[in-house]
Design a protein that fits this description.
The protein is of the alpha/beta class and about 525 residues long. About 45% of the residues lie in helices and about 15% in strands. The protein has helices spanning about 20-35, 50-55, 65-70, 85-90, 100-115, 130-140, 160-165, 195-205, 230-235, 250-255, 265-280, 290, 305-330, 335-345, 355-370, 400-410, 425-435, 445-455, 460-465, 485-495; strands spanning about 5-10, 10-15, 40-45, 75-85, 95, 100, 120-125, 145-150, 180-185, 210-215, 245, 260, 380, 390, 475-480, 500. The strands form five sheets. Strands 8-7-4-9-3-10 form a six-stranded parallel beta sheet, sandwiched between helices. It has a four-stranded mixed beta sheet with strand order 14-13-15-16, with helices on both faces. A hairpin with a 4-residue loop joins strand 5 (about 95) and strand 6 (about 100).
């Protein structure tokens, strides 16, 4: 298997992860754990579906591998989804899809149902009469979704006697479940999954049932080195959460074996262990936070060099992403400095991302012959065969639209001189956008150009050939010399293109440049 290649969308992509091996190992391990209990509450960290981070750092990993894993056990599983009321109230957004946590919850319910997994209910955690959360509760209940409300746990984290009592976890309503494995998941971190698991554990033992708790956390990977780029990429991805990978000292003391975990799990382990012991009335079987985990992701790695290279590229992408978020005001300077420090520790440079220099060089040439009013944005894309193409902004279309057209023309072997989109199609679209809809930006964006191309494809076979090449862009790398607007960002994401941007705006406009 070492050094294996897989053919994907016509692209030779070296893989470092064996999905089949991982699924077999992971399924077996979860079943072994659940055999010890009447019911197992399995806290799922990270993303249950569309785990694009794992896909990027583990070439060969299926972004929906976790859901396929659960589908293998679907007759034994039901799902509880936790959402923190405060995240609903402030419209917290899932970055990789650009949708709010409440909308992500609805999407997650649909996806779970489509994969034949039973959704038990939604838990609104740390609820304090937030108006937006109340609206969301109404929306769920009126669509037939069971909703449970959990408030702040009284006494947490210092007063153990209150926490594990009818005034603490006992205040939360008991969630009726019928299957041996209850997966507790959420749209993102800090959603109250652990508190929900422990609350259920308390109620189960009050009812005389033997229940257990385990954690499914993909990263950091416990059985690879602390400073492996794969684990460091996790730190870069969670810089805003201040997560730091550490050696699990509890695990080493118990087993004389080095294991990697992260600071929050290690810091909370003594308290968590005491809570579980107080609930069960027995000494905990867990000697370390690593013991609590069931993740076997490390056993699917088949080519370490491939994983290292992919992880380093992910760190560079995270650096650009955090730089743009800092520019937009979404993260603080400390978060950006953390990712910058990670880059320096691994001796990585911005230019180690292949598409950065071609994009910047094209933009520099544009500026040489431009007036102050001109927008000189360039985008570079690396195609499946390694060819790098660029596109520039113009009065007709923005740089993302230009580079996509250049890419499909190249892939379809269509000459540059041939017009893919007829002016007869473009002019009405421009007129509608600028004169009827009063758009402040006359240039057509990526989505608008693709719609125009699809219209032309109905009567123009050459345009259809170009359209047919769009799937080959899935997985391609691209870089823009300016921050993209939300529409272009979403369109490239839907095409599967991994885009990074220099943390600079294309113009001085404030409102119209978002």
């Amino acid at each position: 298997m070492l050094g294996e290649y897989t053919k994907k969308w016509g692209k030779n992509m070296k893989i470092g992860f064996d999905q089949k091996k991982y699924l077999e190992e992971q399924t077996r391990y979860i079943l072994e754990r659940v055999n010890n209990y009447d019911k197992l509450y399995l806290e799922f960290g990270g993303k249950l579906m569309y785990d694009l981070h794992a896909k990027r750092v583990l070439p060969g990993f299926d972004e929906n591998g976790k859901i396929k894993l659960l589908n293998r056990l679907k007759d034994k599983i039901e799902v509880i989804i936790c959402v923190y009321a405060g995240d609903i109230e402030r419209n917290k957004i899932r970055g990789d899809f650009g949708i709010t946590y409440d909308m992500e919850t609805l999407r997650l319910i649909d996806d779970l149902r489509n994969n034949e997994l039973l959704v038990n209910s939604v838990v609104i955690t740390r609820y304090d009469e937030q108006p937006t959360a109340k609206v969301f509760i109404n929306k769920l209940e009126r669509r037939g979704i069971k909703v449970y409300i959990h408030k702040e746990t009284k006494g947490y984290p210092t007063d153990l006697d209150t926490i594990v009592s009818d005034e603490g976890y006992g205040q939360n309503p008991y969630i009726e479940t019928t299957r041996p494995i209850v997966v507790v998941t959420a749209p993102g971190p800090g959603s109250g999954k652990l508190a929900t698991c422990l609350s259920q554990l308390y109620h189960e033992y009050k009812r005389g049932r033997v229940a257990g708790y385990s954690k499914f956390e993909t990263f950091p990977v416990w059985n690879i080195p602390l400073k492996h780029p794969l684990n460091i990429a996790y730190e870069a991805a969670t810089a805003d959460l201040r997560d730091v990978n550490m050696i699990d000292s509890f695990h080493f003391d118990a087993y004389s074996e080095i294991a990697v975990n992260y600071n929050r799990d290690i810091e909370t382990f003594p308290l968590l262990k005491r809570i579980i012991e107080k609930i069960t009335g027995e000494e905990s079987v867990f000697k370390s936070p690593t013991d609590m985990g069931v993740n076997r992701i490390g056993f699917g790695i088949i080519d370490d060099e491939v994983i290292k290279e992919a992880s380093e590229q992910e760190i560079i992408r995270r650096y650009f992403k955090t730089g743009c978020e800092y520019k937009k005001g979404y993260v603080d300077k400390e978060t950006f400095e953390r990712v910058k420090l990670i880059m320096e520790e691994l001796k990585l440079k911005e230019e180690d991302r292949k598409v950065v220099i071609p994009a910047r060089e094209r933009a520099a040439r544009l500026k040489e012959n431009a007036s102050k009013a001109d927008i000189c944005t360039a985008v570079a894309i690396e195609l499946p065969d390694g060819k790098i193409l660029t596109g520039k902004s113009s009065k007709l279309m923005d740089a993302t639209a230009a580079v996509i057209l250049n890419a499909v023309k190249y892939l379809a072997k269509i000459s540059d001189e041939i017009l893919l989109i007829s002016p007869v199609i473009l002019e009405p679209i421009k007129n509608l956008k600028n004169n009827m809809l009063k758009s402040s930006n006359p240039a057509l964006n990526c989505e608008e150009i693709l719609i125009a191309l699809s219209i032309c494809a109905a009567t123009n076979p050459v345009a259809q050939v170009a359209m047919d090449k769009l799937p080959l862009l899935n997985g391609c790398q691209a870089h823009s010399t300016a921050i993209l607007n939300r529409n272009d960002e979403q369109t490239l994401r839907k095409l599967g293109i991994e885009i990074t941007c220099d943390p600079e705006y294309a113009s001085q406009d404030l409102y119209y440049n978002n």
